Amino acid sequence: MRVALFVTCLADAMFPQVGKATVTLLERLGHEVVFPDAQTCCGQMHINTGYQKAAIKLIEHQMRTFEQYDAIVAPSGSCVGSVRHQHAAVAARAGKAQLAARAHDVGARTYELSEFLVDVLGVTDVGASYPHRVTYHPTCHSLRMLRVGEKPLRLLREVRGLDLVELPEAHQCCGFGGTFALKNADTSAAMLTDKLRNVLATDADVVSAGDSSCLMHIGGGLSRLRVETRPVHLAEILASA
Q: Are 113 and 188 within one domain?
């Protein structure tokens, strides 16, 4: 299958290893991965902060860039959630019915990594090996918008050498939420404190998630505590061999 990688802004600017791991993983499974050079921000940041008119041009650009591909995969539940659940609605509210239809079509072919592996490719054992104690944080967008459910855990359970330990109160938000962490810093910090307490209670070497944004937030808290537990994206674990 020819797959387009929607790498996302955060991976492109700060966590390129996550995009590389996604490519490594999909190619190992026998698929051709294409990286559309024209891709930019999908507009989620603009939509979530009230700049929906400004987001229209980014939505149009997202369509032009990706609508030729049968499958679009991103290592981010947050960005996939925006493409699938926000783009068509924003376009419709702006009176752009044709764009809304295109956005609905592209959104239906845009997948978060774990759901693409499990639901589309039908695999849970991706041939990975990762001899570490790992706990998994289900990010809000993947949990509540995309409803990926147990898919990331099913993939992790098949990784050779990996000791998967359940995260207490896993469903609770880590407190990042994009600009929420800036606009509501005290509340965000309190939520992060609760998340860090639960992560450390697992005695895990690694805390994993499907979104670099949440891992950035959690990782910042862990670094300030000077503990050995480190954040690692799900794609990096699954690409390990």
A: no
